[in-house]
Specification:
Strands 1-2-3 form a 3-stranded antiparallel beta sheet. It folds into 2 domains: about 70 residues, 2-Layer Sandwich (Ribosomal protein L11, N-terminal domain); about 60 residues, Ribosomal protein L11/L12, C-terminal domain (Arc Repressor Mutant, subunit A), CATH 1.10.10. Helix 3 runs antiparallel to helix 4 and helix 4 crosses helix 5. About 35% of the residues lie in helices and about 20% in strands. With about 140 residues, the chain is of the alpha+beta class. Strand 2 and strand 3 form a beta hairpin.
Length: about 140
Amino acid sequence: MAKKKVTGMIKLQVPAQKATPAPPVGPALGPHGVSAPQFVQQFNDASKDVEAGLLVPVVITVYQDRSFTFEMKSPPAAVLIKKEIGLSSGSAEPHKVKVGKITRDQLKKIAEMKMADLNANDIDAAIKIVAGTARSMGVEVEG
């Protein structure tokens, strides 16, 4: 079986279970000849395990015959941190104005969710990466 020729890679952040052919999905897929409704249906089915509305990065590989495959990543650390401690947004001045606190257990939970997408060898390194993101959002890290 011959490998299909890749004609494009599209990176998007789409809300889990709530993708629609409207922007940003439709305009991103259109120029590549990919059927937006077909992608939307497959993505919404694939994102059933993720909390509805949570932003999920997705990499779509488009082939010459206009077929496609996609790979879902874990939601961005900042999105998970905001959800975990109930924030609406990070701090405008993260080193001066603190907007919340996060515990080591909460960091560990997020790090475990993101482990596959992080450049870390073990859970401790992953926790440090997530803690850095939290600090840059103005969230105080406890422990």
